[in-house]
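Kindly go through the entry underneath: sequence plus fold tokens. Please state briefly how this chain folds according to its tokens.
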Amino acid sequence: MRRLRHANPQKQWEGNDLNDVTALSVAVPYCDVVVTERQWAHFVDVAQLDRRFNTTVISDLRKLPELLK
């Protein structure tokens, strides 16, 4: 995800981006469902980390109740 984030030089890193990458590097492999910002959900999808770890990653909190049924 860090590599994908660096691939876009027009978007500058924000203060919490490093914290987000660190937290997601633990959450994606160990959690069944992860809710995160849209850009990180996209990066997880592009890197196919969700499929690799069988994790559902969403960016819309309204979808969470359906996933938890």
Summary: The chain has five helices and two strands. Residues 15-67 form one domain. The longest strand covers residues 33-35.
